[in-house]
Amino acid sequence: LLALKKWIVAQCRNQNKNANKNKSKEILSDMEMLKLWKGLFYCMWMSDKTPIQHELAQNISDLIFVFDSKSKKELGWAQFIKGFFITMQREWLGIDHLRLDKYYTFIRKIIHAWLKFLCKRGWDNNDLALYKTVMVDTVLTNKPDGLRFHVLDVFLPELEKVCKSNSKSVDFNNLQDILAPFYILLAGIKSQTLYEYALKKVFYALPEFSATTSVDVDVNITIVSKCIFKIASESETLPSKQRDLLYD
């Protein structure tokens, strides 16, 4: 991992040099990123004992901070996150029950590092737009459902940890951008079970999230409710049961 970290830093520097020369050069191609993640996935697969697994999950997740934070291209940190979730989606059904817990931890660590990265950069609008694209196109709209259930399960708790550890306020516009992928999920998901779980773990949990977070997080429940009501009233493709849940 130390060698990989040094190599990524070198690739980012080369990309910056080429960008200054108006050349387009990727840090890694999409296929190379997926090959990298396959190796990291099986690195976790072979790890034994809980402390070692947690340390490895943390060290791999922290690689997001190595990528060029100034690049506005999807080929840096966002490509790294996409590669992880595409790999997890591909390998998910092959994970046996003895290894499932450490991959649950791995997903939690990745979500935390991703949110911490965005927070560290001040919830930049360009970053949040790219975050929304990755969450919608790669994470929340693709099966397997087990992976999506776990993302819903850990997202708000990890956001709370990030807010507490960084002691930075989150204004309502930023929070709405963070929640945007979940609004889109409500407007288009067909699975009734996943739908109810998204409401329970994200939207129904917002009041408690606001109350327990020690830093200033602007949660305007009235506006959130209006956004949900708008989804229910405008989406013609929602099954009646799901529309009723939104109105409730």
Share of helix, binned: over 70%
Main sheet makeup: none
Strand content: under 5%
Order of helices and strands: HHHHHHHHHHHH
Distance between the termini: 49 Å
User: What integer value in Å does the Rg equal?
Assistant: 19 Å
Number of strands: 0
Mean pLDDT: 87
Low-confidence runs of at least 5 consecutive residues: none
Q: Can you describe this structure?
A:
30% of the residues are buried. The chain has 248 residues and is mainly alpha-helical.
Task: State the main characteristics.
248 residues, 12 helices
Q: Can I get a quick summary?
A:
The protein has twelve helices and no strands. By secondary structure, the chain is mainly α.
Secondary structure elements and their pairing?
Layout: H1 2-20, H2 30-46, H3 50-61, H4 77-91, H5 100-120, H6 125-140, H7 145-166, H8 172-188, H9 192-203, H10 206-212, H11 221-234, H12 240-247
